[in-house]
Amino acid sequence: MTEKKQQLGFATKAVHIGNRVDQDMLSRPKALPIYQTSVFTVDNLEHLDRQAAGDKNIYTYTRHGNPNQTALELLVAQFEEGEAAQATSSGMGAIMAAILAEVQTGDHIVATRDIYGGTKSFLVTELSRLGITTTFVDMSDLNNVKRAIQDNTRLVYSETASNPLLRITDVEKLSQLTKERSLKLIIDNTFITPYLFKPLLHGADIVVHSATKYLNGHSDATGGVVIGSKDFIERARRVTINFGASLSPFESWLTYRGAKTLALRMDKHCQNALQLASFLEDNPSVSKVFYPGLASHPDHPLAVKQFAKGFGGMLSFELKGTLARVEHFIRNLEHVLLAPSLAGIATTISHPVKTSHRSLTKEELADLGLSEQVIRVSVGIEDIEDIIEDFARALAKSQDY
Ligand SMILES: *Cc1c(COP(=O)(O)O)cnc(C)c1O
Asked: pLDDT confidence of 360, banded at 50, 70, 90?
């Protein structure tokens, strides 16, 4: 009997042995480990009371919080110089949490007309059936925003740079208007990143990110972050928990690790993008280049004023010729891949009219100035000579179409 007690049963061993190898260690891991656990054990009931009272050192359940989420939240809050942050399972999770933390049924939103397609779909398809309406306006003229504001408007939603033509939002001017009218201003800073621009320091109330893009930067995790005041983040956290949009430990860990090299990557993205943009602008096969770092871009003066260290890694250009030429150009690229996302270390291209802007009518496309010859480039961190050579070759080979 006693002998039998010394040995745990096979199934019990399977469950318990090894779980605590780190507990008595006198050395600590240099890198943050992955807390790949759905639940945490606590020592006593008092700790549960402390956790309920808001003690951030006590975790209970990963949907409510996990050290890997916390690490990412602390880092991105500092990046954006906000009080607090909430990690979410995707950029859309962050946008959902930010908006639902602010609005009630009957409220109205003014949003930029060039908005990310997923955000537009969320506003039009999901929020409208909850009785929350949105007016989309061209925010390059603030009078359009003024005219769209109603008695029940609660927030204004914009993006630092639009997709795919890289129109830049004057956050300072827009925030003067939202402050005058006591509205909240949400800015999606995914394309520009806090390394180049911090909207909270220019009057925005809330910043959202698709961390899937530059914050992670390696195209291997999906995630989002909301940044704002402590009070606001408490509400966004509640929405995230209740709607089940928390970020998993592994995705949090990958994003946190990726974010550590944001400055290095952005410097290289910016340098490479400016060089590729200049090459394209000088190429006779290209009719237009849309890059805020070029003097030819309509928002270049604003970009110079707003962005500290560069103009980002995203650009678009319009090819001369037909859609068949675009097709041949894409097929002849050797290293540059066609992928409907952005902000990874590898240079990729996408075709807005066939992807993000597919649902727009011919009139709407014309109104935006977006043709089927426009190609968007997410410029990576490769040696730019190789990328320029790839573009030059594909442009030459597609010349007859
Ligand atoms: C990708 C993206 C989103 C959505 O993010 P997901 O991580 O795909 O949910 C939102 N805003 C912008 C500007 C994006 O590029």
From this structure: confident
